[in-house]
């Protein structure tokens, strides 16, 4: 796929067909123009101060927008690209003492794996490589409380990105480490955002061909003097309607992650609504390879009830083996729930 794309790009092709990740529905093809890809690449270069000759690591699946855009940035910005397979720890084969990358993008599970690979001093083996970078991006899925806590050992700036195939990669970033860390995404220059009647974000930018892209992401907009920012609350299509009360599962997940972190636990997890004759839907928790004691479960339920109300309290929890995943490494909730039901 990488060779095919670069061949087409260098031949001057003006249109490229990519597919969405399929994390919230059936993957669909989207046609993007060369101009859209170039505009997005230049915006990234401007945002992170990338210069011709800078070295970038490409370790994402180049069949999808995040990986493709790393290739485009290399072509448009004159970066020196090193391509490796999208493995759990893409830095494992590099010498920490001598390897220099200025820029890289990872999915959360990759960064989690990199930071968990420690030496005799209990320091991540690849930390020197990370610390030399101008910027580290993490996207494709939400970052957990445990990962954000682990990221604080990295000296280089680490940013969560917000974007999708339709917006040609990221249109907003959120600092995850250091004194400037924030829970708000900052919208990049030249990008216009707003919300619809559901409170869901819409986006207009040069990278979208100046067409409005409507998302299903529920946000809280924060207009400030220097920039437009937003807090990502969750997805409209994951809201659980239980007993007539709407529960945003992402808010429940955040409380559970924080509580588990206090016990030194950091499993992947998600909250979803299952059919219920009385409530319509009931809130339930799914954990990957992690059991809970009765005392832990009661503590979690109490914390959720105190913060979000009794309707948000999960009625049950399920432990599974490895979660189902999409081709881009996102949790496939529907596949995982179907496997539990079998």
From TrEMBL:
Residues 11-177 form the AMP-dependent synthetase/ligase domain. Coiled coil: none annotated. One of its GO terms (molecular function) is medium-chain fatty acid-CoA ligase activity. InterPro entries: AMP-bd_C_sf, AMP-dep_synth/lig_dom, ANL_N_sf. It comes from the Bacteria. GO terms for biological process: fatty acid metabolic process. Pfam families: AMP-binding. This is AMP-binding protein. It comes from Fibrella aquatilis. The lineage of its organism: Bacteria, Pseudomonadati, Bacteroidota, Cytophagia, Cytophagales.
């Amino acid at each position: 796929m990488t060779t095919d794309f670069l061949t087409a790009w260098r031949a001057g092709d003006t249109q490229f067909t990519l597919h969405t990740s399929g994390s919230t529905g059936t993957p669909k093809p989207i046609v993007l123009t060369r101009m859209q890809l170039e505009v997005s690449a230049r915006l990234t270069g401007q945002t992170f101060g990338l210069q011709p000759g800078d070295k970038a690591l490409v370790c994402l699946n180049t069949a999808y927008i995040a990986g493709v855009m790393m290739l485009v940035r290399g072509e448009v910005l004159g970066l020196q690209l090193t391509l490796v397979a999208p493995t759990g720890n893409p830095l494992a084969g590099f010498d920490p003492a001598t390897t220099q990358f200025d820029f890289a993008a990872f999915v959360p599970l990759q960064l989690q794996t990199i930071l968990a690979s420690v030496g005799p001093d209990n320091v991540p083996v690849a930390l020197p490589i990370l610390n030399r970078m101008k910027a580290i991006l993490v996207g494709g899925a939400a970052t957990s409380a445990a990962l954000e806590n682990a990221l604080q050992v990295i000296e280089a700036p680490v940013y969560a990105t917000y974007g999708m195939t339709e917006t040609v990669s990221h249109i907003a970033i959120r600092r995850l480490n250091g004194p400037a860390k924030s829970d708000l995404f900052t919208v990049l220059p030249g990008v216009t955002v707003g919300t619809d009647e559901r409170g869901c974000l819409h986006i207009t930018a040069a990278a979208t061909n100046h067409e409005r892209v409507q998302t299903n992401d529920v946000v809280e907009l924060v207009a400030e003097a220097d920039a437009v920012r937003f807090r990502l609350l969750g997805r409209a299509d994951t809201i659980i309607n239980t007993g007539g009360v709407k529960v945003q599962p992402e808010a429940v997940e955040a409380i559970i992650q924080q509580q588990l972190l206090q016990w030194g636990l950091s499993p992947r997890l998600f909250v979803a609504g299952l059919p219920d004759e009385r409530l319509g839907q009931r809130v339930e928790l799914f954990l990957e390879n992690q059991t809970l004691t009765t005392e832990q479960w009661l503590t979690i339920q109490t914390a959720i009830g105190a913060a979000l109300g009794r309707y948000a309290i999960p009625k049950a929890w399920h432990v599974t083996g490895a979660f189902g995943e999409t081709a881009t490494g996102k949790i496939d909730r529907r596949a995982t729930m179907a496997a539990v039901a079998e």
